[in-house]
Amino acid sequence: MHPQGPLSQKIFAVAKELIPGGVNSPVRAFRNVGGEPFFVRRAAGSRIEDIDGKHYIDYIGSWGPNILGHAPIAITNTIHEVAKSGISFGIPNMFEVEMARTICDWVPSVEKVRMCSSGTEATMSAIRLARGFTKRDYIVKFDGCYHGHSDSLLVAAGSGALTHGEPDSAGVPKSFAEKTIVLPYNDPAALEALFAARGEEIAAIIVESYPANAGLVFPKPGYLALLTSITKQHGALLIFDEVMTGFRLGKAGVQGLENLTPDLSCFGKVIGGGLPVGAFGGRAEIMDYLAPIGPVYQAGTLSGNPLAMAAGLAQLRELNNHSGFARLETLGAHFERGLRQLLAEKGVPHRFNRVGSMFCLFFTDREIVNVSDVMKQDLEFFKKFFWGCLDKGIYLAPSPYETGFISLAHTEADLDDTLTVFSEVLSAI
Asked: Which candidate, 152, 66, 130, places its Cα nearest to that of 324?
């Protein structure tokens, strides 16, 4: 057991009496690294401070939404100003229309969009809409891809489910799971065989455009294009889950990088500015199947919340006005160059995947093609590396199955300091 500071230990003991496992999301529990979590007092820019007064350079950024860093002035000022006029109305407001306009402008595949309050809501609603539009029941997902914790999608999932070795969950009826077909990622033959046999029964494929809840896994060349063509051929829909990649890797996310046009897309994280937000959108003829004008019901009392919409808009404006995506690529490339050089010098078996400001380091010399490769990395080595870094003030995800994030608040000096720590830790393992 790796003890945290005395205050964190004390609060965690209380939390375990009041909250299942002491946490409100499983990956926070540090189970996969054999320890207990610390508690945060405050955060600013690239750094967080725990309740015992220790400071860390943070590479989680609230699991992705804090692309400007923690508590950026542009967002905190916006929240303060908007809150003066009301926190929530349950009535249409101008910010949700402006957010819809921005998403439709930035993402060519999205003609109409509906707001919700989480990525889980977005994927759940997109699946329901796909089934309603196609009048088919079956969906296809990929092993290790995480699309939130709704029942039909919590099958062979990544993220916290993967960390705990429980890709399925108790409480999910078999009848729900039976309508979800799971395929290995990056396996064209398996995909083609399924559609040849059952293509007319399938409502949709849902895929993390770049799977980022089992580490960070890239599609083989042409694989995403195959998903596009095979769904079109069989009258199924293609749903891109861009909750993590959307508005982080560019204005149009992965679909912009790969020049692809999914039928539906799911978003979250960055468009909330750190507040809980989700969205899903796509072709108008599909989106118009939603109530109140169509037969597919979807709702949310806090959907389009003015604080969240205004915060997200402020974040997107900052990204756009300051060439944010180019700067994030510069920072990511700087980090990658230094890390690759360091790992080569140390002779550590590894694979390092990075796109823009997202990255994942795997302690293995295997090619990373899908989740089975990810799970064969040296987990004990990762644990030692994680705790060594944490001790020296670098906060990485407490799981080898999670992606790291660089923000615009990080500087080259932050990255160089991080690499220095990495070097010290690797030398000590």
From this structure: 66
* Tokens at 386, concatenated: 């994680």
Is the domain of 353 the same as that of 289?
no
Clarify whether residues 80 and 128 are in a common domain.
yes
CA–CA separation, 250 vs 256, rounded Å?
7
Same domain, 329 and 296: no
> In this structure, what CATH number is given to the domain that contains residue 160?
3.40.640.10
Beta strand 237-241 pairing with 358-362: unpaired
CA distance 258 to 260: 6
- Which residues does the annotation mark as catalytic? 146, 241, 269
Q: Is residue 182 a contact partner of residue 143, using CB atoms and an 8 Å limit?
A: yes
Among 288, 244, 140, smallest CA distance to 202 is for 140
Cis peptide before 167 (omega within 30 of 0): no
* 4-32 pLDDT tens trace: 999 999 999 999 999 999 999 988 999 88
Do 351 and 240 fall within a single domain?
no
Q: Which two tokens stand for residue 384?
A: 């030692």
Residue-wise pLDDT tens digits, 345-376: 999 999 999 999 999 999 999 999 988 888 89
State the number of CA atoms in the 13 A half-sphere of 92 facing the CB: 5
- How far is the C-alpha of 40 from the C-alpha of 24, rounded, in Å? 14
Residue 213 domain-assigned (yes or no): yes
Q: In DSSP terms, which residues pair with 208 in a beta bridge?
A: 241
In which domain, by residue range, is 104 found?
73-320
Tokens encoding 336: 């990658």
Q: What radius of gyration, in Å, describes the C-alpha atoms of the chain? A: 21
Burial class (CB in 10 A: 0-12, 13-18, 19+), 189: exposed
| Paired tokens of 260 | 């692809």
Q: Show the tokens assigned to 289.
A: 């199947």
Q: What are phi and psi of 154, to 5 degrees?
A: -90, 60
Report which of 423, 417, 428 is spatially closest to residue 46, judged by C-alpha positions.
417
Do 161 and 243 fall within a single domain? yes
What is the pTM (predicted TM-score) of this model? 0.94
Of 297, 256, 275, nearest in space to 99 by CA: 275
Same domain, 341 and 242: no
Q: Give me the residue label for tokens 């860390």.
A: 56
